[in-house]
TrEMBL record:
The keyword Transmembrane helix does not apply. One of its GO terms (biological process) is tRNA wobble base 5-methoxycarbonylmethyl-2-thiouridinylation. Keywords: 4Fe-4S, Iron, Iron-sulfur, Metal-binding, Oxidoreductase, S-adenosyl-L-methionine. One of its GO terms (cellular component) is cytoplasm. Its EC number is 1.3.98.3. The gene is hemZ_2. It holds the Pfam family Radical_SAM_C. This is Oxygen-independent coproporphyrinogen-III oxidase 2. Its cofactor is [4Fe-4S] cluster. Residues 1-230 form the Radical SAM core domain. GO terms for molecular function: 4 iron, 4 sulfur cluster binding; coproporphyrinogen dehydrogenase activity; metal ion binding. It comes from the Bacteria.
Amino acid sequence: MAKRNIIPIFIPHYGCPNDCVFCNQRKITGISTDISNSDVEDTILEYLSYFKRKDNVEVAFYGGSFTAIPLEEQVGFLKVAHSYKEKGLVKYIRLSTRPDAIDEEILDNLKKYGVDIIELGVQSLDPEVLRLSNRGHDSSCVYEAASLIKSYGFKLGLQQMVGLPGDDLEKSLYTAREFVKLDPYCVRIYPTLVIKETALCKNLERGSYQALELEDSIGYVANLLNIYYRHNINVIRVGLQPTDNINYGGDIVAGAFHPAYRQLVESYYFKKALINYFRSSNNIEDEVTIIANGKNISNISGQGSKNKNEIIKELGIKKLNLRQEDLTNFEVKILSKKDEIIDVRDYYR
């Protein structure tokens, strides 16, 4: 998938009919005021002015429930974005919304104004997790909305959160497997963060909620990645992007946060898969060479060579060489007693 130049337009908590326990979009986005059509245009022009490449530009409406805001306001925002699409300056329009804010009238309007991708903030498909998180809907509307979105020809995105009230690994794995059945174009995975001035923060202070901690979350999320990877579903984000607000010392009180969170998870994924491969194949010598693409060599090595050292220790080898070649995303070449190319997805378990 070619890298896109994203123009993010945040509509904090705009349109949301209720307050989910984890949500404070004004804190998460760092945007505390509502926006106007002129704000949308100014943002598009600002980003276009400094993009070096303008052949793969996407306007993305983030932060609230876009299709739950009044229709005339949706139209106003979309008209601005669509005008730049008609000029050839924008290629895609994306938005995120709630599963219970999708119907045929809404989709007719989105199709009229050139929307390409609709992401549903599903978070979980477990009934208890939805109830305890005060989502305000059940799981049935997710399946209905996803089916309707795809029937209109939109690309479907799904967002999953882990570590919500009442959640556990089995419930998260269930949600991931159900996501696969919906055949989305892309998925995002977000560990739950406890943000200041949320109901979840109050629950944490009262002792009625326990946050999923960083170390515990890494293997947990790697198990979800494994499901999506095995089904060739594009996971476009893992963890919230750090900002001035979204950081310890900012508005995060607790939860699994790290500025390079995805790399931590993918490093764990590769380490576990490779150790499983070597143990099951017995393809081990005192000196082993592992070859992968640049990104995956970084994942295999781990931050501060932590993974590399753990692999050496686990396998009892003397030397591990890492080398970069132009291989595909899951291909790893092993040079040992026998030389072979493996797909790491076959060995993660």
